[in-house]
C-alpha cells in the first residue's frame, strides 16, 4: 500500500465495517501480555487495527507514528528514526555515531514478541499484512524492560488462520506534486496444509518517488568554524562564545586560495527515492489441544537515495549535497513461540533472532561549519600551522563524506506463565534474556587531504594510515585513500531480567495491580576510535592510544528493580477509572571520548548512568450514550532523573559524547474520542489530542549547554487529529465511503543542548479519501496534504546549519485490494 505521510485520526480504536453496527467495537490487544479489550485494562493504549491501518494507508515507520498525538519521531528519513512518547526526549542520535555511541532508545519497538530497539536506527518494518499496531504510552518497564521508560510500540503481524484458504492482493500508484510517481504491490496467501498445520506468506514491494531537489551550490574552507569570530549569531539565535570561537577568527585570509567544492555534477531533481521490498513466512502447528508452535521468517531490504531533509535558506524542497547520500538497510528475522498449558498455568516460551546490515554513504560536508581542525587536513602547511602569521597558500575543496557500515545481531528469549484470567487473584510472571552485538565502522573521508602540502613543498598526505590493532577491530592495516578518521567499534548489550505482575479484585468494582522487574544490563565497547595524528607516512599503527579494548577495562553495568502499582474502579461495564504509579529506566553506556576536556574544568565521563522516570497517572475508559460515544484519556506527570543526552561540542571533543545532562518534568493530558451517532447511519467521527508542558528542572552538566526552564525536545505543546468517515449503500449493493481528515502539531524544539538546538514550526495538514467496496474488493482515491503544507516534522542543528525533515508534498493516488 502506498505510503501516506499524513495520519489522520490515528487514535481510532475501532472502525465500522458496515453502516448497520450500532455500537463502537472493542479492540482486543495483548498489551498486558494477556488478550484483553482496550476498554478493560488500566493502561493507556492506542490500538490501530488492520482495518484502520488500511483506511489510513499506513505503510511504514513514519506513517504509523509521526502523526499520533503524544508520539513524535526524530530523524532524517526511512530507517533513520527514533521514537518519542509524551515529550520524554533530549536529542536525536547522530547517524554517523548512532550505533555504538548513541543513546539507547527510551521507547521500546517490538515486532510481535521481539524487542528490536536500536540506538539511532529503529527497525523500519513495512506494515504488510499487519494485524494491528499497539501504542502503550508511559513507562512499561515491569513487563517490557529497558528502553520502555517512555512507552512501547508493538507491531503485531497476522498469524496463520486454520479456518480455511484465503488471501489478498493490493496495488497502488500515486503522484506527488513536483515529485516522482510512486507505486506498490502486496500479496498475502493463507492455507491449511493439514488438519493441524497452517502456513501464511506475504510479499511486497513499494517504490516511493522523490520530491526533494539537490540544487547547484559551492562552498569552501573559509566557512570553517576555525575562522568564525566570537559573537557570531548562529541561525538558531545562539551566539558563538568562549572556547567555541575559531582560533584563527582574526586572521587575514586574503592570501589564501580557497578552492570550492562544486556539486554541479550531482544536481538532480527528486533525488530522495526509497524502495521497500520484502517477504514474511509463518507456520502454525497445533500439536494437540493444549499446545501449539508458531514459527516465522521474514526478510526486508530498504534502499534509499538522497536525503529527506531540506535547507530552509533555499527554495521549497531544496538542499545542496556535495557527495553521495545512499543507504541499503536489510534484515532477516527468525522467531518461534511455543505456548500451552502446564496444569493450571498458561505457559509461553518465545525467542527470536535478527541479523541486520546497514551500508550508508553520508555527505559530511556540513561538518565544515563546526569543525575547527578541517584545515589541518585539506590546507597547505602555512594555513594549517600559521605560527602566528597571517596564512597564505591553498585550501582544497571541503567536500567530505562518511562510509558507514553497521552490523547488528540480536537474540531474545522470554518465558512467562499466567494464571486463570477469570480468577479473583491473577498473576503473570517470567524471565527475559537478550544479547545484542552491534558493530559499526565509520570511515570519515576528506578527499582533499591527499593534496595538502607541507612547509618543504612535499605532499604530507594523510594516508596510508593504520587502524588500531584491537582484538575487536574489523579492518586492520592500511586505511582507504582519503580516510582521516575511523571508528571501528563493537558494542555489546546484554540484559537479564525477571518480572511479574499480580492483580487482585478487591470487590466487584475495585481491583489493584502490583508489578516489579529486576534487571541486570551490561554495555561494553571494544575496537578502535582512531584518527590520523601520528600516522603521517607511517608503516605501522601509531594509534594504540585509541584502542578501546585498552581504554575501557570495565563495562557499564546497571542492576536494579523498578515497580508499578495501580488501582482500578469500574462502577459499571461502560466505565473504568484508574490511578497508576510506574517506573521506567534506560541503561547507561560508555563514552568513546571519555577523558576529553574543554580546559575549563569539564571532563567527559567514561561511564554514563542509567536515567530513570517516575510516572503518576489518572486515566479513564468510558463508553457513553448507549455505546455510541467513546472517550478515553489520562492526566499524567512524569519526573525524569539524570536524563541522558548526546552532545556535539567541538570545544570539548571532536566526537559526539553522552552525558547525564539534566533532570526534567513532563505534565500532560491526552485523550481520544470516537463517536458513532445513532441518528446518522454510517458516520463515525474520531479524533485525538495531546497536551504537554515540559521543563528542565535542574541542570547537571557544567558546560553552559543546557538551560533550566527550557522545553524538552520533540515535545509539541499541542497535537491533535480529527477525521470523519461516512459510509452508505449504493443501488448495486456496494458500499461507498468518504473520509476527510486533519492533523495538527504545535511548534517544538529538536534538542535540549542550546548550541545543537533549533525550533520546528507548527503545521496543519489536510487530506481526503473516497472509494467503493464490497466483501471482496475495495477501490479508493485519495489526496494527502491537500493544502501542500511543507510540514516540519523533524530536524537537527548539530552542524550549525538548519536541516529540516519535511512532509511529502500534496500527493494523490489510487489503491485497489482484492480478497480471495
Automatic annotation (TrEMBL):
It is found in: Cell outer membrane. Its main location: membrane. Coiled coil: none annotated. Residues 38-152 form the TonB-dependent receptor plug domain. It is a multi-pass membrane protein. The keyword Protein biosynthesis does not apply. Transmembrane segments: none annotated. GO terms for cellular component: cell outer membrane. Gene3D superfamilies: TonB-dependent receptor, beta-barrel domain, TonB-dependent receptor, plug domain. Residues 265-786 form the TonB-dependent receptor-like beta-barrel domain. It comes from the Bacteria. InterPro entries: Beta-barrel_TonB, Beta-barrel_TonB_sf, Plug_dom, Plug_dom_sf, TonB-dep_rcpt-like. PROSITE patterns: TONB_DEPENDENT_REC_3. Keywords: Cell outer membrane, Ion transport, Iron, Iron transport, Membrane, Receptor, Signal, TonB box, Transmembrane, Transmembrane beta strand, Transport. Residues 1-22 form the signal peptide. Belongs to the TonB-dependent receptor family. This is TonB-dependent receptor.
